[in-house]
Specification:
Shape: globular
Order of helices and strands: HEHEEEEEEEEEE
Strand content: 25-35%
Number of helices: 2
Radius of gyration: 24 Å
Strand order of the largest sheet: 5-4-9-10-11
Structural class: alpha+beta
Length: 179
Amino acid sequence: MSVSSSVRRLTALAGVAAAVVGAVALPASAADHHRQYRPVVYISDVQYDSPGRDDRSNRSLKAEWVEITNDSRRAVNLDGWTLSDEDGHTYTFDHYRLSGRATVRVHTGIGRDSRRDVYQDRRAYVWDNRSDTATLRNDRDRFVDEVAWGYDRDHRGDDRHHRGDDWRRGGDHRDGHRH
């Protein structure tokens, strides 16, 4: 075997190796490029239209809720954090610590707070069935997250928009009236 044929073979092998590495690395870098930022604490779900009749009973009010999730391993102190709607109805967390990898459900109605459920103790609905925005702010009043529904921003009929990006979930507008 001559030196030039060995060099050609090594060059060919290096080219194949580079192509394989490039093919494997490309999807990873493409995935990283399209990965969207998600805060550690965020609004993970909203039940803005309580199931059944909207009769303003405490049972119906407790069935209207917003879930807040902590994706980190460490607990987050939510004392002083706020959850509000477009009309200015605001719930302020008081002495609440959200454990790591946990979710708390913030109910509109009256109830007894626990680790998984807290209550706004309201006697009227907060979240508008047709369209509204749930906004979460930290104890320094800095924006953390929001979820909006009922807005046809892109004319595709999707009804929930999360943090203004392309993340959406279908919702249900049974009665379509404003609470």
